[in-house]
Design brief:
With about 350 residues, the protein is α/β, with parallel strands linked by helices. The chain has 18 helices and five strands. It has two domains: about 1-125, Rossmann fold (3-Layer(aba) Sandwich); about 130-360, Orthogonal Bundle (Hypothetical protein af1432). Strand 1, helix 1 and strand 2 (about 25-30) form a beta-alpha-beta unit.
Length: about 350
């Protein structure tokens, strides 16, 4: 079974998909945006909105028709107050209306009525790593796929996900994590989850445990949170950025600092991960041009991971490097990256290479 989930990106709306963690393929997408080919032809469409979309019903109907989705079984999930307001209209384009939040068993019962394969899926063993990847991806959808202004909730949700991310990587290793991560369309969400995976594995290899392991992984999950304030047409641009767009993208460390400092119980180290992960030893980084010992060692470790993950990412407008090639590049710039820390990152690259060879 394949499900296309259309949401407004809010963390609360994404809870409608909690029933499908693990084994069922769920493609999350923001309505009216171009639909990637890999998301086409779902079996069921689930639409989940905290509020009725500002663009209204007609554009949504036209979008569904354009993508040959108008005949697909559709479930709409909305809060009761909003659903009552639009109940007469909703029945015109949804087979079932469910109030948010939706209990997992209720969602499964409704989908089972639409697709007889669901009972078989229910009997499958739960894949905990796939479940964690999927639930974490939904939180990133909130951060990077919609202008919902839900910054504080998103930060809290991603922070709360840290423990599960670490547990999944500890139980199943890097390969299973990356296998799940690579299936997601949003390059920013995919990148952040890959960085978190590499960070957790590296920390484990270095003997970092418990509180510090969670701190490093949480910093990795939140390091690009400032991109919440970058326009979506720049963030997901399929081709190279213009110099003006690049300048806008390079504001994300400062925006991340502002977002994190605006929250309660802000951890200074987490803020520094977001603010300083593009700083380089020779002062050529941004936003402050820090040099050498001005950069915290843990932040510099995250910089190494961030660069490596960017080099290997399968983006539409660039050819990704193979793990060995990307690692060789990191080794070739000792003026920018600490040689000792790059060398210590080598075993993580070896683990990644094993995954790539197994997947080939």
């Amino acid at each position: 079974m394949k499900i296309l989930a259309l949401t407004d990106g809010a963390v609360k709306s994404a809870t409608a998909l909690d029933a499908f963690d693990g084994r069922t393929q769920v493609d999350m997408h923001v309505p009216l945006a171009p639909l990637p080919e890999v998301m086409a032809k779902p079996d069921i469409v689930i639409m989940s909105f905290v509020d009725f979309p500002e663009y209204g019903m007609k554009p949504l109907l036209e979008w569904l028709e354009k993508h040959d989705l108008a005949h697909k079984p559709r479930i709409l999930c909305m809060p009761k107050s909003v659903a009552r307001q639009f109940s007469a209209s909703v029945r015109l384009f949804a087979d079932k209306l469910l109030p948010l939040p939706v209990r997992a068993d209720v969602m499964l019962d409704e989908v089972e009525r639409m697709d007889t394969r669901l009972p078989q899926i229910r009997k499958q063993a739960r894949n905990e790593t796939a479940a964690t990847v999927q639930s974490t991806a939904r939180k990133f959808l909130s951060a990077f796929s919609a202008d919902n202004g839900d910054e504080a909730t998103t930060v809290l949700a991603l922070s709360a996900a840290t423990k599960d991310v670490c547990a999944a990587l500890d139980a199943d290793g890097l390969s299973k994590w990356l296998e799940g991560v690579e299936s997601y369309h949003s390059s920013t969400a995919r990148h952040c989850m890959a960085v978190a995976g590499f960070a957790s594995i590296w920390a484990n290899m270095l003997g970092v445990k418990d509180k510090d392991l969670h701190l490093f992984t949480r910093g990795a999950l939140l390091h690009d949170i400032g991109k919440m304030r970058i326009p979506l047409d720049i963030l997901d641009k399929p081709g190279p950025l213009t110099p003006e767009e690049r300048k806008i993208i390079e504001t994300h460390p400062e925006e991340g600092k502002r977002i994190l400092e605006a929250g309660d119980n802000t951890n200074a180290m987490i803020v520094d991960f977001a603010y300083s992960h593009h700083e380089l030893l020779d002062g050529s980084g941004y936003p402050r041009g820090l040099k050498g010992s001005e950069i915290n060692d843990m932040v510099h470790c995250l910089t190494i991971i961030d660069m490596y993950a960017a080099l290997i990412d399968k983006r539409s407008h660039t050819t990704p490097m193979q793990p060995r090639e990307a690692y060789a590049y990191l080794q070739s710039i000792p003026e920018k990256l600490d040689k000792g820390l790059v060398s210590a990152f080598g075993p993580v690259v070896d683990a990644h290479m094993e995954f790539e060879m197994a997947a080939a």
